[in-house]
TrEMBL record:
Spans traversing the lipid bilayer: 12-30, 50-70, 117-140, 211-230
Protein name in the entry: Uncharacterized protein
Highest taxon of the lineage: Eukaryota
Keywords per UniProt: Membrane, Transmembrane, Transmembrane helix
Organism, as annotated: Obba rivulosa
Amino acid sequence: MKFSLPESFACFSLHVLLVGIHVALLQVYMHHYEHKITASGNTATTALSLTVRIGSQMIATVLTLFLVLVTQQLSLKRNFHARQTLTALHDKANAWLGLGSSFLTLYQQRKTRTAPWYIFAITVYSLGIFILHITTPALFDVIPFTQTALVTPINETIGGPEVAVIRVTLSATALRLSGNGTSHPDCPASGPITGPCIEQIVASMLNLNGFALYIGLAVSGILFLFAWLTTRGVGVESRMHCTLDTPGILQLTWLLGNNMLISTRMVSRVRNPSVDELRKGGQFHVQMSDPEKVGKL
C-alpha cells in the first residue's frame, strides 16, 4: 500500500500553511492594517473582541489537530518500516500520545537509551503545539482610542438634552474644521446641543500583539523542521509495501500472533513485567512493516 507520498504532501502542506498564516499576519502587523477595524460602544467592542478571539482559536485548534494527526500517523507508519529495537518502537509510539507522555518517555531514556534524539524531536513538536494554543488567543486584542466626531443637531431649534443629533467621524487630517472652513467649539459636557460641535468619542480598534506573533512564527518554523525530522522527508517510503493501515494495539496484537518468535523472545528475557524490565527486555531488533519479515530478528 503506497501511503507515504500523499500523506507527506498533506503533512507539509499544512505546515507551510501554518507558517504562511504567521507570515501574512506579520505583514499586517508591520503596516498595522488591523487598526482599520474599529468598533464604537461597549456592545460592539465586546462583540469584536469575542469574534476575533473565538475565531482565531477555532482556526488554530482545527489546524493543529490535523497537523498532529497527519504527522503522528506518518511518523509511526514510517517507523514500522525501520529495523529497530522493539523498545525503541514502543517509546516512539508512547511519545506521540501527548505532551506529558513524551516528557515521561524522554525521562525514561536516562535508564534505557533507545532513540533519545527522536523522542526529543517528538517532545519539542508536542511542546510547540501546546505553545501555539497559548499564543493564538493572545495574538489579537482590542485597545481603546479617541475618535473625533462632528456632532450636528437634527433640529437646532429643539432644546433639551434629549435632542437628536448626527455624529460624523472626522479623520485626523480633517482637524476641527467643517466643509466651509468654520471652526467648531467642543460639545458641552452637559446640557442641550444647540449647534454643530466637536466631540471626542472613545472607540476601540483591533490590535495585533507583536510578541505573541513572533513567538507563533518561530514555533511554526520549528514545527515544520521537527515534522521533517520525525517523518524523514516526503515520499521516502512510497515504494514500500505495508500490510498495516494504522499502527495501533490491534494491529500489533495481530502481528505478534502471527510471529510468535517476538513473544517467545520477550517472555524469555523478562521475568518481572515492570516498566524498566520490559524496556530492557525489548532491546532486540524487529521490523514490523511486513509479517514475512517480522520474524527475521
